[in-house]
Amino acid sequence: MDVFFQQILATIQSISSVPRMRTRVPEGARHLRASDVEEVTFKVKFRFRKVEFWQLMHGLDLVDEHGIPKMLYVHHSNPQLAGKSRMAKMNAESALLVLLRRLASPARLCDLVYEMGASRTIISHAWNYMLEYLMENFVLPVYELERWIPHFDTLTDGFVRAGVPFENIIGVIDGHVQPVSRPGGEGCKGANFEDFQVFNGHDRVHALKYLGLVLSNGLVLVKGPWTGNRHDSACMNMSKMIEVLKHIFACTGRAYMIFGDSAFGAGRHMQKMLKGKNLSHREHCFNAIMARYRICIENVFAEIHSEWGYTSDRYNQKLGLQRVGQAYLVASFLHNCKACLHGSQMSAQYGHDILCDMPLERFLAMRHAPAFDFA
Question: Looking at the chain, which runs of residues are DSSP E strands?
Fold first, then answer.
């Protein structure tokens, strides 16, 4: 028995002798800057090259008129509430690096302390600040379908040149089930949802629901989130996209359409895959042709998960504790920024001369585009 307890004591001592991960910022450390990281490592950790990172900094209005990164009060949106504490301020360059680094991989805050040169508190504040900043100033305005109305003719021409047998389709839409951690479980006790509200019976998982509309230039407009028990057609009605197309038809007489799978309802402004057991040969051919174009929305969702690993870790998507919905929308927005810089999968498949890619500056300037006047 004494030998047994001696072995247990030796095991405990060996475990206690292993150096633990230090989560305190070392003395003299400063916040991470882009110049502190090598080019190859920068692309892997932050998903952009350094030149593209600075294009993003200018496009997101995070630099002043002299090209110097702004100083952000990440603890409070009001500088008077933040006070004069150094912990409440962070360089815009470092704040954007925090956002990109955490979205790129499902890292915990303590894992980023040494790398970012900041404490867990300031990293968390910078993460939340950048999510709110991008959502309010870029994601929500750019994802409004009304701002894309002047580009509808160009979008329909892109699908026609790609071979779609419709002359008035502006995009391909589909629902996406984003798994999250179970509400009420460990870490999710502050969620305002019941267990059954976010449970998706089709996929048998707790999730949030999004709608993605892929345009012919390869960009995706994401709507949501909604609770996981919502059907795709119900999310379509709540997104008000069909209402926008109805207003256009009432004012101009042009009937634009959106194409989706068989879960959506067909109508003047909505076309879908044919469903049934006794389909004719022509109907089977129609489904086979359109399936080649509808698969693009599935590929976009897969690219978002592969590029931004934070969205693929369902156990880290804790409702009531983290900004789960904002993080996914911002990840899709950054995916669009990469598509503007490198081209989309659709343009790579059908050719850049057929589908016109949108430059990054023009895409970010869509937030200033005037909304369509239906009067």
Answer: 71-73, 89-91, 169-179, 199-200, 205-215, 220-227, 257-260, 270-272
